[in-house]
Amino acid sequence: MLIARSESKLANVAAHVERTHGVQTRTLSVDLSGPDATSRVLDGVEDLEIGLFIYNAAAEPRGLFLDTPDDELVRNVYMNCTVPTLLTKSLAAKMVERRRGGIALCSSGGALQGLRIFAAYGAAKAYELLLAEGLWDELRGSGVDVMGYVIGTTLTPEYRRNMNVTPEVESNLRAAGAQSPEECAARFYEVFGTGPRGYASDHIEANFAANARLPRAEVVAAMGEHMQASFG
């Protein structure tokens, strides 16, 4: 089951998956920031046994917090916190009944420290990360694995367009730990089931470990300078 807003993109991805892996797919076009998102998703999977649920969606309000419109802040909390919480509760209950299943809530490197310009986004992604870690503990022994998956800079088509990624820029981003979507996905299957938190790359994990030894103010201020230079 593939879920996203764009029907055309869903159709293309579904066709690729079927052609490459010889499996059946189903798609559902849903705006996960919409008020009926949870009910529409649950209705759409009612007749399916969901063995692995991956929530990899995000609203990402950009700009200084006090300048961000209220509706964008509400959308951020709804899409990044409310919807994954309610979907996880419903799907996890069925997995526990079957005594098998897996849940991954995709978080962000922006959740690991306060994030200038993306403060509300980082806070919401921190919620997802800690929700997953808490559920990993609560559901241990039930046959259901849960992980918060921390993703860093990913060279998606949208990111390439928005950031005007030239070959030179990509080389620099790669040197700083950026990944392709395929690399990020492949890493997930390597680390899933190993604990409450997984990292999309060794680079992200090493940065987190290094920052944990530094004064918090230094870490947040340094990230703020980087965000200001990149997005300010």
Write up this protein.
- The chain has 232 residues and is of the alpha/beta class.
- The chain has a single domain (51-231), classed as Rossmann fold (3-Layer(aba) Sandwich).
- It has helices at residues 7-21, 37-44, 70-98, 119-138, 157-162, 167-175, 181-191, 202-211, 216-231; strands spanning 2-4, 27-29, 52-55, 101-108, 144-151, 197-199.
- The strands form two sheets. The chain has a four-stranded parallel β-sheet. Strands 1-2 form a two-stranded parallel sheet.
- Helix 2 (37-44) runs parallel beside helix 3 (70-98) and helix 3 (70-98) runs parallel beside helix 4.
- The longest helix has 29 residues, at 70-98.
CATH class membership: Alpha Beta
Structural class: alpha/beta
CATH architecture classification: 3-Layer(aba) Sandwich
Q: CATH superfamily name?
A: NAD(P)-binding Rossmann-like Domain
- Detail the poorly predicted runs: none
Number of strands: 6
What's the assembly state of these chains? single chain
**Spatial order of the strands forming the largest sheet:** 3-4-5-6
Describe the main β-sheet briefly: 4 strands, parallel
- Stated plainly, the CATH topology is called Rossmann fold
Q: What Rg is obtained from the alpha carbons, in whole angstroms?
A: 18 Å
Q: Could you report the average pLDDT, rounded to the nearest whole number? A: 96
How many distinct domains?
1
